[in-house]
Amino acid sequence: MIQNEAVAALPIQELPSVVVQLFERARQPLLPGTQGQHGLFVRYLRRKPGRGLAVVYNASPLNSSRGTRSRTPERWVSLTLGEAALAGTQIRFAARQAQEAALEALPPGVLRIPDLDLVVQAFPADDGLPGLAASCTPARETPLFSGLEAAARVQLCDPAWHLVSAKAEPVRYKPSSRCVIRYTLLLARTTTEGSLQRRLALFGKVYGDREQARAIQAAMQQLYTEQAAASQPILPRQLGAVERLGLTLNEAVESPEGTEPEPLRTGLRALQARVVRGGAGEILDVVIPGTELRHAAHALARLHTSAARPAGALRTGAKEAKRARERAALIAAHDPAQAAAAQRLAEQLATRLEALEPDAYRPAHGGFKASQLLFHGQRAFVVDFDGFCRADPALDVGYFLAYLRPSGLWYRRPGMRPWFESSAACFVSAYRQALRERGIDEVTTDGILERTHLYEGAFLLKIATRRVNRMNSPRTGELSTMLAEIATCLSGEAGRLEAIISSR
Predict the structure, then answer these.
(1) pLDDT (average), residues 222-226
(2) 501 falls in which pLDDT band (50, 70, 90)?
(3) Residue ranges of the alpha helices (H) in 111-185?
(4) Whose CA is closest to 250, among 123, 382, 159, 367?
(5) Which stretches does DSSP call E strand in 28-89?
(6) What pTM does this model have?
(7) Where are the domains of the chain?
(8) From the CA atom positions of the chain, what is the Rg in Å?
């Protein structure tokens, strides 16, 4: 049980030393096969309301520089703390309590202190992702090896290819939640002229909930099949699953072998704000990524007019209203000086979101933003459908516009406002046109875009909680600008409505 002693308050910055000491107590090496002293450097940190704190550290020599620290998964160490162990940016126990509490050494690389609700794990050990370690070890005679071979045959449309070897490279990891892995395969095929070999890349995602993995894979397969029948798909092809590992597999977005390679860009890079400066540093022009914005808008319109029917409950305005109030409460506790403003805006948003009545709930991505997009040649691919649902299409449009805002906007940097306004207008215009081409009437489209600003404000409130979730100190100016932006979304000012109407 966590003791509320007067001195029992551990700063989050001291957690790495606690982790190192736990490995020493368990007589397990922090980094097997290496010598010297090592430290832990934050790679990922998030606090989720009701779900506690998750941190991923990168273990490197203490004297290493930021640029030379290894970022290989073999050096990742994760820490999770239950909600009861947290008090703002402080931990509800002292370092001494962690040193003296009963320690459980579970499977290799997993250390637990039940009394403090603390778990430390050396990657790929993760008791919340029981299939992770096996998904990172593509050895022969394993379900993973067989699953990768079957997936490669599906992609190549040829059962004669055999898997020779495979390499797993984890690329994105959230402890006890999910992990994205890139697989590089070496395949061989026997012909009358001899043996052929080729390399192929696939992506896999491991889930802690096998049923969730199965449901997402089935929904994505349905959506891909529909999109492929109509025209070029807007998402990578689904290649199967290894159900006992909770692992789904899909193709990597890349140029086919033997063709001229086309550049692949992430949405974050392609939709990054750019300005042209003069010799004295003055802003001469802003560079709008019009082609990419139009591709993204058309992909979203195709999703919203899909016949796919995601399983699960509707994602309604009432649900977003509840989240808006919860996020405002987090902000208020983190920055009391702006608590009243945040909660007042959240209440206005929530009241209006609860009253929304869309004409229909349609297939929706649920988290449509730049980081969920890949641009390859003249196509946009949408990825990460973990939040696939039925919702008001305005939810996705609002999500995209909220996250389209460049970070420089919060600090009033020159050029950022005109870049965002022009980019947003380009996206909205392209989305309207794409809906028109797919048979959606103007009245329905007007309704979607008029509701968009409420969802936009709600997701700006989500962005405003990022410093709370990362347990950073408040930045009053940044939050103040974000709240002003939310107020603008709420106002439904003439300029915004005129931009919607003129985009027809």
Answers:
(1) 93
(2) very low
(3) 132-135, 143-156
(4) 382
(5) 38-48, 52-61, 76-81, 86-87
(6) 0.90
(7) 10-122, 132-251, 264-502
(8) 25
